[in-house]
Predict the structure.
Amino acid sequence: MIVENNGVVLVLSGPSGAGKSSLINKIADDIGEYYFSISTTTRAMREGEEDGVHYHFVTKEEFEKEIENDNFLEYALVHGNYYGTSLLPVKQALSEGKLVVFDIDVQGNTAVKNRLGDITTSVFISPPTLSELERRLRARSTDDEDVIQNRMKMARREIQRIAEYDFLVINDDLDVAAEVLKQIAITARLKIPNDRINSFVQSWEDM
Ligand code: ADP
Ligand code: 5GP
């Protein structure tokens, strides 16, 4: 039996500053065609960010309207701001058989697992130590001191939930971590949805 390509999900989580963006950029050319889900957020735009590229930046009122209209696959309050994944483009990409990559927090991972668990591979990306995370957040120099302190506090909390993920990638050496993530992304494409498995079992028995 030939199993057609089906859409699958790769969830990347990890503290802000763990290196999720750096890693996905590094492996982008090596993992085949994929769709990176652009989240919607109410947080302020950082220097170097572009609306519609890094996030869809909206007001709190606009975000709450989208919640009301049931437009999100999942959403969460992170660091006091709303972040959410719009359902429509994800559905579209999945129906085209793409690998859909999410950069979402631990709450988002739980929600995606509940809704799309059979086609989802989840990866927690961690810096090697908390002090290295602090160093990287300062080096990135995009956040104020109180934001950095808040991100560190959140990181301590998020790290307690690594066991909820399929894989842990420790981003110490960027090249090594990128190679591991590349292998995971390639393997994520091999996930088969439950309905396909059921029809395979059915036809296997009937033949
Ligand atoms: P995230 O997307 O998880 O918030 P970034 O990719 O923006 O994290 O990385 C945070 C900062 O750390 C950036 O300045 C990035 O260049 C740096 N960085 C990422 N990975 C490494 C690494 N392995 N070694 C050193 N610096 C890194
Ligand atoms: P940042 O402000 O650094 O871009 O992101 C802060 C946190 O929000 C990160 O942990 C990131 O993974 C998470 N995040 C970004 N988009 C979404 C989303 O659509 N849903 C959820 N649940 N979390 C998100």
User: Anything to note?
Assistant: The mean pLDDT is 94. The two ends are 11 Å apart (CA to CA). The helical segments are 20-27, 60-68, 87-95, 106-116, 130-140, 145-158, 174-188, 194-206. The first helix runs from residue 20 to 27.
